[in-house]
Amino acid sequence: MIDLTIEDQVAEVVLDAPGRLNALDEVALAELDDAYREAEAAGVRALLLRGEGRAFCAGRDISGVDAATDDALGYLRNRVTPLLWRMTAFPAPTFAAAHGACLGVGLGLLIATDVVYVADDAKIGSPFANLGATLDSGGHALFFDRLGAHRTLDLIYTGELMTGAEAVGAGLFSRAVPAAELLPFTRARVQQVAGGATNAFLASKRLVGELRDERVAFWAAVAHENEAQGRLSETLDYQEGFAAFQEKRRPRFTGR
């Protein structure tokens, strides 16, 4: 279900159950958590998440769920949320290449990823209108923050899905790419970032996380930037970057 390859300091994590549009049950979520643990232990400098087949991830696999006895709270609180925390805190830049259905928990996986490139015809939204359930995995927060209350509730009430191009136009994700170009485009970007100044990227990741999660005020954010820059000035990559600029050559970063 979950495949992991590591090469040239890049981890590629693949949702590989195309027959069910990569929908996730508890076993698959545990495997996905293990893949991120393994990639972290390997010290990779970038990570790519993608799905095989016609979709990125259609959400939770409910094909065998008995609604009368379903522990929805346990599934979300004990499996999904800890995984999203792990993904968000991953100690390297993370990317996702998303195509087809990106729904429910699948949407949550994208929310927990640093940079998301989507196929221009991807399908994004809240598919729960006909299930008697509600949007989960951080979807309310993302939609409200980027779309406002009216559009968020419109999508939830109607079950209307946005295309990838529409979602990017609304500020939900990073960039929309023609479907045929999505994976090579994303892999090229990931490889580029894996060769970059990893500590500087992680400093920005932490600063953006503070702004998102703690709503840090402007001057506090400036102070945190100053402190981050001070710490970075003591790294080898900082010294290499300045030396490369002064010597008019490309920097050779090592992530240290």
TrEMBL record:
What SUPFAM superfamilies does its record include? ClpP/crotonase (SSF52096)
State the signal peptide span. Answer: none
Q: Name one GO molecular function term.
A: catalytic activity
**Entry-linked InterPro entries:** ClpP/crotonase-like_dom_sf, Enoyl-CoA_hydra/iso, Enoyl-CoA_hydra_C
Give the domain of life.
Bacteria
Q: Which CDD domains match?
A: crotonase-like (cd06558)
One family from Pfam that matches here is ECH_1
Of which family is this protein a member? Belongs to the enoyl-CoA hydratase/isomerase family.
Q: What is this protein called?
A: Enoyl-CoA hydratase/carnithine racemase
